Amino acid sequence: MKMTFRWYGEGNDKITLDQIKQIPGVEGVVWSLHDMPAGSLWSPERVAEVEKQAQEYGFHIDVVESVNVHEDIKLGLDTRDQYIENYKQTLRVLAKFGVKVVCYNFMPVFDWTRTNLYKKMPDGSNALFFEKSKINEIDPIELIETISKNTDVTMPGWEPERLANLKQTFKQYEGFTAEDLWKNLQYFLEQIIPVAEECNIKMAIHPDDPAFPIFGLPRIIINKENIGRFLKLVDRPHNGLTVCTGSLGSIDNDIPAIIESYHDRIHFMHIRNVKRFENGDFIESSHRACDGSVDIVEVVKTLHKYDYQGYVRPDHGRHIWGEEKWARPGYGLYDRALGIMYINGLWDTLNHKS
Ligand SMILES: [Mn+2]
């Protein structure tokens, strides 16, 4: 297991590399060029800047999260080929810098979605919360306005330029089915995976968050069965997975069983916990197994059983010790650092021969 930490980049993340360096066991930063719109070509000069910054602290830049997939690719429009071409070219650029894993997702329009970014918990912390009944009532455009008013930082997947033409994008998705999305995903993979193989970059799709359709838009990377179908679309090792325990944990998935079945195709793990409620709501909790609905101990044990050599990062954390005043929602410093220590503690215990 190789421990990493997501970093939004110089000037874009209030958390510094100096702080990340002091979290035990972190070997690399998970990064992206967050200002590059989906479908654009990344330049070597920009990647070199990140590499230089990371190297000063001895961090590798092996994992990119994400190289976003342009909406036209998901929609299967004629214009998709130029964006796929840019995607391939970007992979070739990344390969020159030794990038090993590219995380991406294939969710129509919306990336991860919550109804409240700062839900107060009884202990005084607050966390990302999803209220199912609210999502059924709320107009998506209203939701975006609420989220962007709530925070002065741009969140990945919620970039203003992507969301500016939301009404038009919704129109394009009228009548669009899950099968259409599967077909367009297959088209994308058939183009991309051979280039990924040539570059030795492992593609690692992130599951949909939450793992069910919202606003009438299909979501397909949601459970064990669908992940099995995904892996067969292009049945090659470079077509692999990011297993995000929090996203898959938004519904009653048996995540250790998913790891059992597909461990040889997992290139990246996002480990975090969520607490589900009977009415379908969920809130992000501490990493501890007893604090949420996902058995994180069993997750880590299963990875250990298969001698998992891939990358891991703690995923979203709660906002604690007042950090909601400055931290990007879900991406504060403290709870993610605590999460790392929990994961490291489990891993060290499993490694310990007594
Ligand atoms: Mn995740």
Automatic annotation (TrEMBL):
It is an enzyme of class 4 (lyase). It comes from the Bacteria. Its cofactor is Fe(2+); Mn(2+). Its EC number is 4.2.1.8. The keyword Iron applies. Belongs to the mannonate dehydratase family. Catalyzes the dehydration of D-mannonate. This is Mannonate dehydratase. The gene is uxuA.
